[in-house]
Amino acid sequence: MAGKKPPSSDEKVFEHLKRLDDAQEKKKTSKADEELFELLSPKRNIDLRIEKMFQDLPEKFVVLLLEKVQEYAMISLRLMHFFSENGIPGIYISTNKPLSALMESLNAQKINYKNVFFVDAVTKTINAEIIEGANFVYIDSPKNLTDLSVAIDAGAQKIKAEKKFIIFDSLSTLLVYNKAGVVEKFTHSVAGKMRTWNAKGFFLMVENRQDETTKTIAQFCDETVEI
Amino acid sequence: MAAETKRTVTGVSGLDEILFGGIPINNLVVISGDPGSGKTCLCLEFLYMGATKYNEPGIYVSLEESEDEILRMADNFGWEVRKLIAERKLLIIAVELYDFDKLKNTIEDVVARIGAKRLVIDPGVVFRLYFERELDARKRILSLARMLKRIGCTAIITNEIALDKTSSLFGLEEYVADGVILLYHTKLEDRFVRSIGILKMRGTKISEKLHPIEITKEGIKILAKHELFEEVE
Questions:
Q1: Could you tell me the residue range of the domain that residue A15 belongs to?
Q2: What pLDDT does A24 receive?
Q3: For residue B102, which of A30, A106, B5, B74 sits 20 to 30 Å off, Cα-Cα?
């Protein structure tokens, strides 16, 4: 039986060069991916991060979502987009943006919100336009935490689906209007209810991990996620 | 196994929930509250619900307001108290005499007359006008409480919380009453909030939270599943 002919020295050099080329090519591809990722629109970029977050979370959870100021408005909208695309109904509590402005943003991004119950604690405070709707509840002020809690309960009673979300946007605003201790007590209560209702719960807050209130509130949640 | 507590189901929305089923039968309860907190409304509803839903006749002893004024309040909530009076299921007695013993005897008589199971004396703060000496007042209040126990009524006496927050009616709340319910009508920065808390109630477990109250067209509504987040003092 004839043995395999050993490679010539030319062939050895050629294989070595080919391996080097392949390695270089791989490096280029990985860099290209990174560049492509950076080139994606901020919207798509946030969507990818939200998808990644959901992959890492269990089915039911209460999350403290810490956001950068620059991306704040976009993240809450893209969260709504995620739930809308997945056909999950829920409650959106806004202490930041009046409902009229929120609707405008949702419409502009073609996000379906017909299965969402809105609790708005800002419109009346700033005398913004009130849009009437069966799923819209207006609270006089972000100071009225008892009323806010009652309204969230009313929303939860309306949603019969097993899967549901609750987005509280945001604790940062609540802290402007209320003492930290009161907000902590309120958050503790709402987080407990989110669990009772088997919801996917989000407390949105501007990123500030060192703040004592953030640390306390983080204890009431299953996870703290920076997005 | 301990015997189950027999209770007077108040029928007031949310109240039985925070009392884990109602007021233990034959308890004497003081409801202390700020002006406008809903004391009279709650008491009248307690009697109205007893007479209409639980077949328990009741008596409203008014030491301040006239029968007409109380009837007007009932009308505002759509409670047909006049009909209940005609059926002897509810009596309103407006007492003007500042004679404590006569008051006591009158109560005993009317309770026996209609077989009342529920009694309200409103407002107990008027007792202050009956006595000149503290010790005498304490003795008489104690004798009233004993009489109320003997006649087998679940009784409520109302009291005002003064602006300086002193409220005791000669030790009635601290030593004599089986239960104390506090009603608050508190001014926050730019609004008022109403709330209720059970300070004590012998013979039953109680909610230890402050609960918000709404006064609706149908009566008082205690939001038993909710706690009050606003800070009240």
A1: 11-40
A2: 59
A3: B74
